[in-house]
Inverse folding.
């Protein structure tokens, strides 16, 4: 959306000052040339210097005003948003009705590759399936994301699900490095949305052990505006409480928020609160659905 607001008076005054100075000097040059004044050459050099210097001085002045006040100006160092609307502090105002994009993490901004993670520890396909069923694919896995049980208590639960391989679980899940892999699209996606003026948050069922073990895959957390990881709040999706907490903490307006998650039940919970929701199937599909909602970047 183009910025069609009227240029402020002070900007127009500065522009006219620059024009008057330059035009005045060239009129003097014209007069000097017509009268054959010996100072014609010096005036000419002065005009050339002023033609270069005056715009630079005016640009620096406008830039300084913008830097001191925090307001966007024609001299602001963000040419990629020059065609966007800005608030009085220079922040880009996003187009459309949506102002906040909330991302899930696993299988949205990262790949949750638990089967490869287990297989890479030397287990065959049958054992991978057996370990997965008793742990990651069990209802107990949610508790690792909730963060209310110790690691040892979780291992005991996994062992109870398949006592025949009880000794395997502490070995497999001692170090979670590699269970989550980063996606190349994550950081550019977040940066593009933020540059277009959108607040970008995360809302994810995620454990402290997975976060600490996969720091390299989670670098995008340095780019987002905030969010909630479930283990910190002892809440997990699709519990309505975790959505409400995010809304309260970041002042979200439900109808201006869109949530992207790969799990339908989590999207349904968000929609019940009035959020827009997109079920992640692939990157291009989500980008298209965002654009259909008016989220353009």
């Amino acid at each position: 959306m183009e910025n069609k607001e009227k240029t402020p008076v002070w900007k127009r005054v500065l522009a006219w000052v620059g024009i008057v100075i330059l035009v005045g000097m060239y009129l003097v040059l014209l007069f000097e040339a017509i009268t054959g004044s010996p100072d014609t050459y010096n005036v000419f050099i002065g005009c050339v210097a002023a033609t270069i210097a005056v715009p630079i001085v005016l640009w620096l002045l406008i830039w300084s005003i913008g830097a001191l006040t925090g307001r966007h100006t024609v001299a602001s160092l963000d040419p990629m948003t020059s065609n966007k609307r800005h608030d009085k502090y220079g922040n880009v105002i996003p187009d459309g009705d949506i102002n906040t994009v909330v991302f899930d993490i696993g299988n949205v901004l990262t790949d949750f590759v638990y089967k490869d993670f287990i297989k890479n520890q030397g287990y065959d396909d049958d054992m991978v399936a057996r370990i997965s069923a008793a742990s990651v694919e069990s209802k107990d896995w949610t508790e690792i994301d909730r963060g209310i049980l110790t690691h040892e208590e979780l291992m005991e639960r996994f062992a109870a699900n398949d006592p025949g391989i009880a000794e395997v679980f502490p070995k497999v899940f001692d170090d979670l490095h590699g269970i989550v892999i980063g996606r190349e699209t994550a950081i550019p996606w977040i940066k593009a949305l933020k540059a277009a003026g959108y607040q970008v948050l995360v809302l994810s069922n995620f454990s402290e052990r997975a976060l600490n073990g996969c720091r390299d895959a989670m670098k995008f957390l340095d780019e987002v505006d905030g969010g909630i990881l479930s283990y910190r709040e002892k809440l997990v999706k699709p519990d309505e409480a975790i959505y409400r907490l995010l809304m309260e903490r970041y002042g979200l307006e439900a109808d201006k928020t869109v949530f992207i998650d790969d799990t339908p039940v989590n999207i349904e919970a968000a929609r019940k609160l009035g959020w827009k929701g997109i079920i992640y199937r692939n990157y291009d599909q989500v980008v298209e659905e965002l654009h259909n909602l008016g989220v353009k970047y």
